[in-house]
Amino acid sequence: MKNGLVYVFAIGGFLLGTAESIVAGIIEMMSSDLQVSVSSVGQFVTSFALGFGIGSPILIALTAKYDRKKVLLTSLVLFAAGNALTFFVSSFELILLFRLLAGTGGGAYIAVALAVATKLVSEDKRGSAIGIIATGVTSALVIGVPLGTLLSQAVGWRYLFIIIGILSLILSFIISRYMPVINDKQKIPLSEQIKILKDKAVIACVLVSLFIVLDYATLLTYLTPFIQSFHRLTTEAISMILLAAGIASMIGSRLGGYLTDKWGSKSTIYTGLLLQAAILLLSSMLGTTMIGMISVILIWIGSLWIITPSLQFYLVTLSPKAPDIAQSVNLSFFQFGLALGPLLGGVIINSSSASNLGWTAGIVALIAMGFAIFSFAFSSKRKNVAAA
Fold first, then answer.
1. Phi and psi at residue 156, in whole multiples of 5°?
2. Theoretical Cys-Cys bridge with 126: which of 40, 118, 251, 295, CB 3.0 to 4.6 Å?
3. Is the whole-model pTM more than 0.90?
4. Separation CA 251–CA 257 (nearest Å)
């Protein structure tokens, strides 16, 4: 059942991705029902992100002395509660609070799940295990958000959140029943675990995450105007491209895990970053044809998600004594990148043209490459010192 648990963790990732992204699909419904502005409903996204980015590292740090099974279950129950309680209230402020709770629990859950998954499978399958969980998260964009939006239109948006809560509790029961206790033989004090954040290789790795997500959010937020700056397409055509992009992200996640097991983290990350930077820097030229534009989008988003599981696996190898804290901080920087990307994209659009978003994101990808080079250099130097 150990290998099967990885797929259980991936379902949890799917629920997390759906809960985080669904507001975009039901924002007008929530605005009308709660009698607040659309911009106010947007704060539910911010609240979830704050819980994910700030609350979850604190939660993991406070539970550092407990075995990972207990922390995983506690996090999942908090995530379930934050979603389910939303069903019962009409207060804007309380929903903000519950979104914060859900983000905290969800962020801690996925960080611990990624770290635990590498301990449940054989060494040659660790990259694939992380890729499977990442695919669970990305599939929320392709499956969870559209289905959640349809469900909300049929029965009301509140039912969506209580269903996510109930399914999360069912997952917690399965994990409680089948997951073995994972407790390190030697307890690592919290002060020692936090020291990983002073490790130059770890910090550089986390900055890679920040910049690849910054490049992702910069372009994805304004993907429609970017495409329309080259080709005037119908809403239906844009939707089909977005669907294809979502499928490419799922394929990229699985491929990234597979390549990590076959090639190792370094080769996979470098390949993904080079591919991504090249296609983005050439986007202004390639995007002039429809085939070129579709190729840019699919290669860009596919290569990004090839990098993601490999980067997460690399981070586990950098911090074997405290992988969940490292993962939590890494995922926090994911959230910061998601928050900063729309701001950068907005500046580009307001100051020039949406057609410039591609090469701008390409420059950001090159910055990520620079930090990847630094991280691997620091990691290699650390190994040489340890071997001396």
1. 110, 145
2. 118
3. no
4. 10
Co-location of 290 and 363 in the same domain: yes
Rounded-to-integer distance, Cα 155 and Cα 339, Å: 31
In degrees, rounded to 5, the angle at the alpha carbon of residue 112 between the alpha carbons of residues 108 and 118 is: 160
1 has a pLDDT exceeding 60: no
User: CA 318, CA 306: separation in Å to the nearest integer?
Assistant: 19
Last residue of a domain, one of 143, 166, 184: 184
Greatest CA separation for the chain: 66
Q: What is the three-class DSSP state of 246? A: helix
Considering 184, 219, 247, which residue would you say is the last residue of a domain? 184
Alpha-carbon distance values, 289 to 229, 292, 373 (Å): 12, 5, 34
Q: Domain holding 264: CATH number? A: 1.20.1250.20
Q: In the prediction, which pLDDT does 2 show?
A: 57
Kindly report, residue by residue over 234-253, the tens digit of the pLDDT: 767 877 887 888 888 889 98
Taking each continuous run of H as one helix and of E as one strand, the counts in the chain are 19, 0
